[in-house]
Design brief:
7 helices, single chain, mainly alpha, about 160 residues
């Protein structure tokens, strides 16, 4: 399996090494997956995802900070989401977990679209331009894989429809 090339990044995002090519899912991937499921439960990531997927979840970091200030249960849930996806992204980035398996268990691109503004704001507050970079990289990989799959599905659909007159 080849890993898609990531689009160039703007100066405000971290500079990340490309994702290492992985030969495909392995027994080690399965073991890592089981450990990630346990970590997901330990961090109570589902509680944070409940917050992220609320219909009224704000998209700007200032409102997120106002609604979910540090120290609150809601903020701890959001931070758990960031930590878990950062962990998965770091494993993928270093070739320790197959990107396709990561996409099967969690669509980082969809979650990043909701919580990314908060993560980027934390970079600015801390001055750490690499903060949450594994999560962001994973989201970009997942978005590229989704686009490629959608394009392939469209091509198959056109073939199935037969020649056009």
């Amino acid at each position: 399996m080849t890993t898609p090339t990531l689009p160039s990044q703007t100066p405000s995002t971290p500079t990340l090494a490309p994702v290492a090519a992985v030969a495909g899912p392995s027994h080690d991937d399965a073991a890592a997956l089981v450990r990630l499921v346990h970590l997901h439960a330990q961090l109570q990531v589902s509680d944070g995802l409940d917050v992220v997927w609320r219909p009224d979840f704000p998209q700007d970091p200032y409102t997120i900070d106002a609604w979910y200030p540090p120290g609150t249960d809601g903020r701890r849930g959001l931070e758990s989401v960031l930590v878990w996806f950062q962990t998965v992204g770091t494993l993928v980035k270093h070739g320790l977990l197959d990107p396709a398996i990561a996409r099967d268990i969690a669509r980082a691109d969809l979650v990043w679209a909701r919580i990314g503004p908060m993560a980027v704001a934390e970079r600015g507050r801390t001055g750490d331009e690499e903060m949450w970079g594994g999560f962001e990289l994973l989201a970009k990989v997942h978005a590229a894989e989704t686009a490629a799959a959608d394009q392939a599905a469209g091509a198959i659909e056109l073939e199935a429809d037969g020649p056009r007159d």
